[in-house]
Amino acid sequence: MSRWPALLLGLACGVAGCRERPVPRPTPLTHAAYVWRQGWDASARDSLAGRNWPAGLTELNVLVGECGLAPLGRRVYPPWAALRATGKTLSLSVRIGTRHALGGADEPDLAEGLALLRQGWAEAQVAGVTVAAVQVDFDCPSRLLGAYADRIASAKRAWPEVRLTVTALPTWLQEPGFTRLIAAADGWTLQLHGTQRPNLAKPAPLFAEVPALGWIEQAESFGQPFRIALPTYAYLACYSASGAYLGVRAESAELPKGTARTQGLPADPAQVVRLLAQLEDRRHALVLGVDWFRLPFPGDRQNWTMAGWAQVIARQGMPSACLLEVKADGPLVDVAVVNPTGQPLPMPTLEVAWTGARVLGTDATMDWTAVAASAGVAFRPHPLAGFLAPGERRVVGWVRLTEARPVQVRVVGE
């Protein structure tokens, strides 16, 4: 009988030995950031100097134009000297919407977008900036991927002195034209965020680790090196009173006309960190690096801070809880919240509870509504509430009781 434990132990060790152990990737992931600004003011330009850049960040991909998103295309005029002074490798991007690219005999028609890209490149050359690559960001309908590949191949023939890359959507990976597209381009970035249209009835996260890893493994089956795009931002999805999707708000203060309800869509740093950890295995050596959307700027309310972003790149956790401030002045209780983290946080629901007194009155500030709860008062986010920006403190509301009593305040869901 004494032989059985030893035999079982040997079998267990044999099974464990059959498992593939993680082996570090041969080269570390490289990191780039999209500099996605439609306009540059002195504050944004000056903020590029003296930044505490995350370790491993080597490249900035700068937006130089947009078209097909509004009636008229728009050039962007980056501060070339300030960008060059960062010491980072610089690439350029153009965003092409489908408004004018589809519907004609030449669809997809990329002429306007490629012209904007060429203009930006020429301007950079005049400014003495070396451009490592140019990128086309176009959400091409799957049925036109073959034609899109032809347009990219034609652009390369006409512009042989540049390295031309494209962004790619996960839905393209199973389309027959996708192989032609990545063969035509000099490189490609697989977008892993914002892949689904927001839906109030069926909420979908901005980024999710499990499907992202599945798409990466699909992309690896093509046998070509590629990069991935990961988020640093939060979007606010906007809906009408009937629940119809109206659009998203990034950093602007205005909501789409007719917005009756919003839905916060933040990037979850914990899921991003877990994906980065998995990519450290040599099985994912075809993933060359990460293109982060987007570079944080001072004043961003819906983006990670530079420090928070650096934590994620270093595969460290980022705090995700707000702090409560409760001030009692006799029977009057004031409540505020503070975001001490490096990421935007959804406005929380708070419950204020007490015993032995009645409530005389209560009120909430514009981002919350005060309602009666089972043991006190609840402050719930207003239907149009946005995010609590990193470092922001905001007053939630107040409660007045018939007499001074100890109160308990908690964040619902934590």
List its salient traits.
414 residues; alpha/beta; TIM Barrel; Immunoglobulin-like; 2 domains; eight-stranded parallel beta barrel; four-stranded antiparallel sheet; 31% strand; disordered N terminus
Concise overview:
The protein has helices spanning 3-18, 42-46, 80-85, 111-126, 145-158, 177-184, 209-220, 269-278, 306-313, and strands at 30-35, 57-67, 74-75, 89-96, 131-138, 164-168, 187-191, 226-231, 234-239, 245-249, 261-266, 287-293, 323-329, 332-338, 345-346, 350-353, 359-364, 368-373, 376-381, 387-388, 393-401, 408-411. It is α/β, with parallel strands linked by helices.
Fold topology:
Elements: H1 3-18, E1 30-35, H2 42-46, E2 57-67, E3 74-75, H3 80-85, E4 89-96, H4 111-126, E5 131-138, H5 145-158, E6 164-168, H6 177-184, E7 187-191, H7 209-220, E8 226-231, E9 234-239, E10 245-249, E11 261-266, H8 269-278, E12 287-293, H9 306-313, E13 323-329, E14 332-338, E15 345-346, E16 350-353, E17 359-364, E18 368-373, E19 376-381, E20 387-388, E21 393-401, E22 408-411
Parallel strand pairs: 1-2, 1-12, 2-4, 4-5, 5-6, 6-7, 7-8, 8-12
Antiparallel strand pairs: 2-3, 9-10, 9-11, 13-14, 14-21, 15-20, 16-19, 16-22, 17-21, 18-19
Helix pairs in contact: 5-6, 7-8
Structure description:
This protein is about 25% helix and about 30% strand. The protein is α/β, with parallel strands linked by helices and about 425 residues long. It folds into two domains: about 30-230 and about 265-315, Glycosidases (TIM Barrel, Alpha-Beta Barrel), CATH 3.20.20; about 325-410, Immunoglobulin-like. The protein has an eight-stranded parallel barrel with strand order 1-2-4-5-6-7-8-12. Strands 13-14-21-17 form a four-stranded antiparallel sheet, with no helix packed on it. The protein has a four-stranded antiparallel sheet with strand order 18-19-16-22, with no helix packed on it. The chain starts with a helix and ends with a strand. About 35% of the residues are buried.
